[in-house]
Amino acid sequence: MKRLLPLLLLFVSFSASAQEGTIRYDRVVKIDIDLPPEMESMRDQIPTENKTAMLLHFNEFESVMQAAPKEESDDREVRGNGFMFRMGGQQGENITYVNHDEGLITEKRDFMGRTFLIEDAQPLLAWKLTGEQSEYIGYAVQKATAVRDSSTIEAWFSPQIPVAIGPERFSGLPGAILVLSVNEGQLSFSATEISLESVAEGAIVAPKEGRKVTQEQFDEIMEEKRKEMEAQFGRRGNGARVIMRRN
């Protein structure tokens, strides 16, 4: 019994420390390229995905995710045949704050030069555990799947970090989500670094800047702007169409 007590105290200490920290993810969005025949020779020069490093700070009750500070410019530009394609980090100053205790999300989104503040209830996904287990960057992980609208979601989470957190709006599993894929990788998150040290005071706060809208209102604004751009640019002349899926 005396031997078990130190082990029990060590386990309790580890569990407590694992409920706070920072996870660094690579966020990848696949890009569908639709080029006219006269521009097919440029296809190999155009990236097929956009990658952004993201940081998720968390504690037992709340989390906040935003783009990691850039160490160098990751903008890419391709020119030719009167065509110019430019792509940089798409996340900019976007911030996703989740109050897991109250089930609320506050999200700051920059879109077309305007800043919006989306306030919404935390999505509840009907996760199904598959029973599959593996190891990922030193953590034991388990697989779970879910369906949201028409999107299929696959996640690997670790009970070793016993907090129901995940990237952006994805959460609700009995452990931190370390790997997540939507629609077979159209959108994906992969943890690259995990720190279970205390988060700096003031690092986990809800954004307050921007015009307040609901998620439905923001989706309508995005759809309206998309239609405007299609009407303005469309496929005129040597125009190319680049589609970045939002899931």
Shape: globular
Largest sheet: 13 strands, mixed
Secondary-structure element order, N to C: HEEEEEEEEEEEEEEHE
Kindly identify the CATH topology: outer membrane lipoprotein receptor (LolB), chain A
Please state roughly what percent of the residues sit in beta strands, choosing from under 5%, 5-15%, 15-25%, 25-35%, 35-45% or over 45%.
35-45%
Query: What oligomeric state is this?
Result: single chain
Give the CATH class: Mainly Beta
Q: Helical segment tally?
A: 2
Q: Let me know the average pLDDT.
A: 82
- What structural class do the secondary elements suggest? mainly beta
Q: Whole-number radius of gyration?
A: 21 Å
What is the number of beta strands?
Answer: 15
Q: Using the 3D structure, state the CATH architecture.
A: Clam
Give the N-terminus to C-terminus distance in angstroms.
52 Å
Uncertain ranges:
1-15, 235-247
Short description:
The chain is mainly β and 247 residues long.
Give structural notes.
- This protein is mostly beta strands.
- 13% of the residues lie in helices and 45% in strands.
- It has two helices and 15 strands.
- Strands 1, 2, 3, 6, 7, 8, 9, 10, 11, 12, 13, 14 and 15 form a 13-stranded mixed beta sheet that branches. Strands 4-5 form a two-stranded antiparallel sheet.
- Strand 2 and strand 3 form a beta hairpin.
Based on the model shown, name its key terms:
mainly beta, 13-stranded mixed sheet, disordered C terminus, two-stranded antiparallel ribbon, outer membrane lipoprotein receptor (LolB), chain A
What does the secondary structure layout of this molecule look like, with pairings?
Elements: H1 4-17, E1 21-34, E2 49-58, E3 62-67, E4 76-80, E5 83-87, E6 95-99, E7 104-111, E8 114-121, E9 128-136, E10 139-148, E11 151-158, E12 176-182, E13 187-195, E14 211-213, H2 215-232, E15 241-244
Parallel strand pairs: 8-14
Antiparallel strand pairs: 1-2, 1-13, 1-15, 2-3, 3-6, 4-5, 6-7, 7-8, 9-10, 10-11, 11-12, 12-13
